[in-house]
UniProtKB/TrEMBL annotation:
A single BP term in Gene Ontology: regulation of mRNA stability
Main location: cytoplasm
Transmembrane is among the record's keywords: yes
Organism phylogeny: Bacteria, Pseudomonadati, Pseudomonadota, Gammaproteobacteria, Pseudomonadales
CDD domains, A to Z: CSP_CDS
InterPro entries in UniProt: Ca-reg_mRNA-binding_domain, CSD, CSD_CS, CSP_DNA-bd, DUF1294, NA-bd_OB-fold
A single GO cellular-component term on record: cytosol
Record keywords: Membrane, Phosphoprotein, Transmembrane, Transmembrane helix
Protein name: CSD domain-containing protein
Compartments where found: Cytoplasm
Domain annotation CSD: ranges: 2-74
GO molecular function per UniProt: mRNA 3'-UTR binding
SMART domains, alphabetized: CSP (SM00357)
């Protein structure tokens, strides 16, 4: 990011703005997907950026971030701490259930492994968005979210500032979270899932013991 300028305008609702280069000349388009700093971009702040071109050959900022005092003043997005708290509580709960023998190790392992995979997928998709390369299909990301990867997705969204402003995506994401948690609850306590629980190494009586006593 060897270019410097001022983020002259920024539309946070739409996630883009324009940078005025220090040396003058045509303004450079900047999209939220290329933001490499903390928090959310704010207009009238000094930035450094790299230049790239979109699919139509037009110049745009590949990556950009605050410099100097603006960089020091940028704060971590509040959503990051919320996501961290949610993921911490969830995995702490799973660890407690495992320690008490209510769930087999395969369940927290599945959430941990799939979360790591999806975290990397979000990073790859963010890089692809910055370069204008082929993206990972949203349906693929949602599928992995349903299949135990949503904690990693939640962290990646805030860590990379990716998929945080598109309302339709966020709606489906939370539906995926609810679907996964509903499936987990079904597995842990419903009589219909008894045979599956036995295959995984825990039974209904042990799962319901705290409720009985």
């Amino acid at each position: 990011m060897n270019q410097k300028g001022v983020l002259a305008t920024w539309n946070d609702a739409k996630g883009f703005g324009f940078i005025t280069p220090d040396g003058g000349g045509e303004r450079v388009f900047a999209h939220m997907s290329g933001y490499a700093g903390r928090g959310r971009p704010v207009a009238s702040r000094k930035v450094s950026y790299s230049l790239t071109k979109d699919s139509q050959g037009r110049q745009r900022a590949g990556q950009f971030q605050y410099v100097g005092a603006a960089k020091v003043g940028a704060s971590m997005a509040p959503g990051f701490w919320f996501a961290s708290a949610v993921v911490l509580v969830f995995f702490t709960t799973l660890a407690g259930l495992f320690q008490q023998g209510y769930v087999p190790v395969s369940i927290p392992a599945a959430y941990g492994g799939m979360s790591l995979v999806l975290f990397v997928m979000y990073w790859i998709d963010k890089r692809a968005a910055q370069r204008g390369a082929q993206r990972i299909a949203e349906n693929t990301l949602h599928l992995f979210e349903v299949c135990c990867g949503w904690p990693g997705a939640l962290m990646a969204q805030q860590a990379f500032r990716h998929k945080t402003r598109k309302g339709s995506y966020r709606f489906v994401f939370w539906l995926a979270v609810l679907a996964n948690l509903d499936a987990l609850g079904w597995l842990l306590v419903t009589p219909e899932a008894m045979s599956l629980r036995q295959q995984l190494g825990f039974d209904l009586s042990k799962s319901l013991q705290p409720l009985i006593w």
